[in-house]
Amino acid sequence: VRLSGVPDGHSERAELHTQTMSFDTEAELAETDSPVELAFGRHVVQAHGMRADLKAGNLSLEAEVSGVFVP
Fold first, then answer.
1. Are 38 and 14 in contact (CB under 8 A)?
2. Of 30, 29, 39, which is closest to residue 5 (Cα–Cα)?
3. Which one of 11, 32, 37, 52 counts the least CB within 10 Å of its CB?
4. Residues of the chain below pLDDT 70
């Protein structure tokens, strides 16, 4: 699964990659228990599991979170 877009208030494109993802279209929730990689600009974050509340605009990385933030 590959999701891509420019978040509100930002100029850099963000991309999220994972093997599986489920969507609840009524609740506007997306989640996975699979490893995920989130890249935005020159920054990259990896985690195991993710939950996104699309209505609220919140994304939570669940476990084993690590990343590189380049100045």
1. yes
2. 39
3. 11
4. none
